[in-house]
Amino acid sequence: MNKHAHTARRLRAGAVGVIATAVLATGFTMPASATSATGTGSASDHRATRAALDEVVKGGPPGGIAVAERGHDTWAGRAGTADLATGRQPRADDRFRAGSITKTFVATVVLQLEAEGKLSLDDTVDHWLPGVVRGNGHDGNRITVRQLLNHTSGIYSYTDDEGFKRKAFGTGFLRHRYDTWTPERIVRIAMSHRPNFDPGDEWRYSDTNYILAGMVIRKATGHSYAHEIEQRILRPLHMDSTTLPGTRSRVPGPSGRTYSKLTGELSGPGKPGDPTYDVTDLNPSLAGSAGEIISNSRDLNRFYRALLSGGLLEPRQLEEMTTTVPIRGVPSVSYGLGLMKVKLSCDVEVWGHNGGIQGSVSDTVTTADGDHALTFNFNGDWNVQQQPVVEAEFCGR
Predict the structure, then answer these.
(1) Which residues are catalytic?
(2) Which residues form the domain of 220?
(3) Which of 54, 292, 351, 365 is most solvent-facing, going by the fewest CB within 10 Å?
C-alpha cells in the first residue's frame, strides 16, 4: 500500500466526518457587528465570542471572522469590514493567509515520514542538510529534526534580523513585496547571527527551524514540502480552499483585503495617526515552509480535528507531536511538534497554533477530543488580542 492510500485508509477508519483540532499562541474600522452567518447552532450559544470579535475590531484590525464547530453544529461570526475601499463584509468562507499555522502541516508530514521509516526525529540536521547549518556557533551536527519541530534548536530566527524586518515588515515592504526569497538565502541570514542558546537547553520560537524542516522534507522525499502537504493532507481531507502558493502573490477568492501599519515588526500596537497600508498582495516565499499557507476557517477546523482524532498520524507519532516542552514565563502554554497546548482560565485545555503574516492574524484551536474547534482571522496585524476570543468560545467569558 503506498503512503497516500495509507493516509486515506486512516481517514476512512477514524476521521472522515470527525473534523477537529486546534490552534493558539502568537486603524480604520467600520462599526462592528458580529452576526450568526451560517450553520445549525443557535446564535445565542456564541454571544461571548461575538462580543470578543467586536471588541478586537473596535481597537485594531478592520475586520474579523470566526467559525466554531461542536459536534455536527457549525456557527460563524463576523465583525467589521473585509475591504476598506468597498465596505464589503467578511464572509465565513473567505480565504486568508494563515501564517505559522503552516508549521503544523509541515510537522505532520515529517511525522508521517518517520512512521514510514524515511527519517527519524533523532536524525541530525547535518545528516539531511550537510553544511547548511554552520557559522557563528551554529552546528547542524548537534541539532536534531525533533529540535527543529519543537523550537529547542537554538537556531536564530531570520525574522528577527533587522535587515529582513525593514524589507518585510517596515515600509521597505512596499518596494520588496514581490521579491523571491529562497530557503538557502533565508538560512544564510540566520547563520549570520549567533545561536540563541545551545541545542536542547531552552525553548525559543524560530521561523528558521521550519524553513529547515521544509528542506529536510525535500531531501527525504525528492519532492517539495508543498507537494507532500498537498498529496498527504489537502487531497485526502478535501481541503479545497487551502493552497501553498509558492511565489504567487494573490489570495484566491473569495477573500477580503489585508492591512498593516508597517511598523517594522510582524505585529504590534498601532499608534494614532499611523498610516494603514493594503498589504494583500505579496510574494509568500518570504515565509515559505514557516508560514506561506492560504486557507479558510472551515478547512483549518477540518485539518486540526482530523489530526487530533488520529486521522493523519499513527498513535506513536501523534504522541510525539503532543509531547510538549515548557515555555519559560508562560506556564499556561507549552509546545509540542508544530502544535501548542494551552490551558485556559476555565481549566479547559486546547490544542492548535496561531499564525501571523503581513496584514493577517489567525488562530485555530480545538479540544483534545476534536469535538469543539474554533478558527478565526483578523485582516489587520495591529492591536490584535487573540486570547479573549478563545476564552470567550471555550469558557464563555
Answers:
(1) 100
(2) 3-395
(3) 54
